[in-house]
Write a structure and sequence with these properties.
Layout lengths: L1 H16 L5 H10 L4 H10 L4 H5 L2 H5 L7 E2 L14 H18 L8 H22 L25 H6 L8 H11 L11 H4 L2 H19 L4 H23 L6 E3 L12 E3 L1 H8 L10 E2 L8 E5 L11 E5 L2 H13 L4 E5 L5 E2 L4 E2 L6 H5 L7 H6 L7 E10 L5 E7 L11 E5 H7 E5 L7 H4 L7 E3 L11
Parallel strand pairs: 4-6, 5-14, 9-12
Antiparallel strand pairs: 1-10, 2-3, 4-13, 5-6, 7-10, 7-13, 8-9, 10-11, 11-12
Helix pairs in contact: 7-11, 7-12, 11-12
Length: 470
């Protein structure tokens, strides 16, 4: 009874403070807005035109030349088409230059379809396993900490979250590492793209429907042994769907190449894992994810719970650093001719026609006479901004003091997008909308690398900061 009275008092207090839109308020607005000659002209112009067109800052177009003092040697633009596989394309794109140089090739592409097949299969298995592990919990009950064939605890997940996001195209660097180390890689010629790998929405909808249906059946299983017997048949159905839509992944293949000098190599037989070991002669675990997340303390080690694509694989882990420190590391990598996996909020202030990102590309505030003042931290916590797309960071221009002025991405939207497939962005835009990079550890100071030895702070996957790259 006491709780009811307190609740009623709180509700009454809120009602006294709350204010409805009144006729006096509307009359006041009407007198102050839209009456001046300039406002009437703006109404005529803006109401019949696209805001983005009217707000475009044309000065930026005239002053941008896409020239860079330091640029990684790259060759060719890839195209993810209508799919959310940017993280996969980006991961492979930072390795392509190494392969091209190693074999003196005119060009080379990996098969993203090959990895995509196993990414969806593994994500399906991960969903099934998590549903089996949480069979005793209610749909909205907290899972809490547990260990599932992992060395680190995962926490903060709910069954309803698993059903809401059973599968999707998105991922990050660790997603690529998990797949490459388990399944290897293949040339694009061995398993080329299909209609469904290039246009993935229909396939994803179908898989989500099937996984949710199967998840309910697994929750109804009499015991864990019964659930796992059901899971095997369910996974076979997923394998069938993937085979019919994406093709069957090769167990082995023959590869030969013609180099820049026109010399044809001898053909050689590989399994995908053998090809991975031969063509990518670097340890992918030597790359470290660095994040700029101003909503959390810097110089800390974090891990995102349940953010992986392979059951036994690694979760998304990172060191949180100030933007200036991340820029220093990125500059060192590019100077050494090493491309970097990078993630950003690509849609913010993007002039895709010109291939330019700048914080003042579109001056909506000046056009509408209304201020937009949120900083990066405020945009993150309100869901206004977050990392949405992964690209290879390949170039930087600097002033006479070697301070960065402009940067450039190699994108995976084809040559018709941006500036011949590339996106140039200002250093200010880097500060506001770049979120993470994955450089080789040789470019990171030992004082920062040492942070990886600390126990990571576990974070939930539904945090607004942790959108996967698409």
């Amino acid at each position: 009874m006491k709780k009811i009275i307190i609740s009623a008092l709180l509700l009454s207090a809120w009602a006294l403070k709350a204010q409805e839109i009144t006729s006096d308020m509307l009359q006041s607005f009407d007198q102050e807005v839209g009456q001046s000659a300039s406002d009437k002209a703006l109404i005529n112009a803006i109401s019949g035109s696209e805001l983005k067109t009217l707000a475009l800052n044309r000065h930026n177009i005239a002053t941008n030349d896409h020239a860079f003092k330091y640029k990684v040697k790259v060759n060719g633009i890839t195209n993810q088409k209508s799919s959310g596989r940017c993280w996969m394309f980006t991961s492979l794109n930072i390795l392509r230059p190494k392969v091209i140089e190693k074999y003196n090739l005119p060009n080379f592409e990996f098969s993203t379809n090959y990895l995509y097949f196993y990414d969806l299969l593994e994500k399906s298995n991960l969903f099934y396993e998590q549903i089996i592990l949480t069979r005793s919990l209610k749909m909205n009950e907290d899972i809490g900490p547990y260990v599932a064939n992992m060395s680190k605890k995962e926490s903060g997940q709910t069954v309803s979250y698993l059903f809401k996001y059973p599968i999707g195209d998105g991922g990050v660097w660790n997603s690529f590492v998990n797949l490459a180390e388990k399944y290897g890689v293949a040339p694009k010629t061995v398993m080329p793209e299909t209609f469904h790998s290039e246009k993935t929405s229909e396939l994803n909808k179908l898989l989500r429907r099937k996984l949710r249906e199967d998840g309910l059946r697994l929750r109804e299983a009499t015991n864990e042994k019964h659930a796992r017997a059901l899971k095997k048949d369910m996974l076979k159905d997923i394998y069938r769907i993937l085979t019919l839509t994406l093709g069957k992944p090769p167990k082995s293949f023959e590869w030969r190449y013609t180099d820049k000098d026109g010399k044809l190599s001898e053909p050689k037989q590989y399994t995908p894992l053998e090809f991975y070991q031969a063509i990518i002669d670097i340890d992918l675990n030597d790359y470290v994810m660095l994040m700029n997340d101003p909503t959390r303390p810097y110089y800390k080690h974090y891990e995102i719970s349940y953010d992986r694509n392979v059951m036994e694989g690694k979760n998304w882990t990172y060191i949180n650093l100030p933007s200036d420190k991340i820029k220093e590391i990125a500059l060192a990598s590019i100077k050494a001719n090493e491309a970097i996996y990078a993630s950003c909020d690509v849609g913010k202030q993007l002039n895709n026609k010109e291939g330019l990102c700048a914080t003042d590309n579109y001056q909506y505030g000046q056009l509408l006479g209304v201020p937009f003042k949120m900083n990066k931290k405020e945009r993150i916590i309100t869901g206004e901004s977050g990392s949405t797309h992964g690209m290879a960071l390949i170039a930087v221009d600097v002033d006479k003091n070697e301070k960065p002025i402009m940067w450039q991405f190699e994108n995976s939207w084809g040559t018709e997008s941006g500036h011949n497939g590339y996106l140039t962005f200002t250093d200010d835009w880097f500060t506001e909308y770049m979120f993470r990079i994955v450089p080789h550890k040789k470019f990171i100071h030992q004082d920062i690398l040492h942070i990886l030895n600390s126990e990571p702070i576990i974070l939930p996957p539904w945090d607004p900061m942790f959108q996967e790259d698409k």
